[in-house]
Specification:
By secondary structure, the chain is an alpha/beta fold. It contains twelve helices and nine strands. The chain is globular and about 50 Å long.
Amino acid sequence: MPHLLNKRTILALFLAASSKNSQVSAFATPLSTRSFIAKSTAPSSSSSSSLAMSDERYTIADQPARFARAKKENNERYLNIESVYDGSYLKDKRVAITGANRGIGLALAKELISNGGKLVAICRSSSEELEALKPDEIVTGIDLTSDEQCDTIASKITGGPIDILINNAGYFYEPVEKIDSMNFKEELLMIDICALGPLRVSANLFNNGLLKDGQSSIVMITSQGGSVSWRTVQNPDGGDYGHHMSKSAANMGSVLLSQEFKKHNIPVGILHPGFNKTGMTAKYAEIWEVEGAVDASVGAMRVFHEIAKINMDTTGKFVNCEDGLEIPW
């Protein structure tokens, strides 16, 4: 028994020390709060040298401090993804991307095409920019909240199995939700699109033979906003209920999917794409630069860099595409 108690004591001390490193994120945190936290948690030049990001398992929650540390360490993986990224593995791969008509989905589509990949775009409606890419296939008329429409996806794909499915489409209600301004209808819509939508698409493609055992992989684009353990520091005043609940539900669904698909040898990667300059994050434009937001084209390379690493050993892991480190649940 004394030996067991010692182990527990050691574990408690370790967890207490680890919790000091759980800092704060950019999203859904008032600017004044973010600024204060950034000053208080940014790495000090006088402190002892920390491990390089690549030597750690978990990323840090504080977006400004994360970006500041990357600059201090001259972390090329974080600051210049082109220095490590090689998209040649995408050549001739059939990659299905939901929401490929705009935002980060369109950027992913462009990056895929530039590397010789074969795009299968899945969206509610096309766009001129998407059409200009001349995808192998465009499947339109798909509302991710509709069981009936999602059930038709496989029947509209004519070119054969999918090598990589990227469940990217999402929705972020713009107004900040507080206890006196909750929009329950919008909360349910976010959960429906962000959490159930990827399951509808994945189930339809798998059940109709377009996701193959030992050949295909699934990518879930979620968000660091889905980390429950970070809410107390990223959202010290609460708020944005629907957004965070939808991403947390998406993460849960993704992990369960990764477990079920182990017997099929189909890995599932769960990715936070990073802070990208898109229409969805435009309401944060005033802090894009201080928090290291990047153009969607850079974000797309970060995502594909991490997709290249997805396999049965990494299945079910929640990874930040900014630095390649895991995000705690």
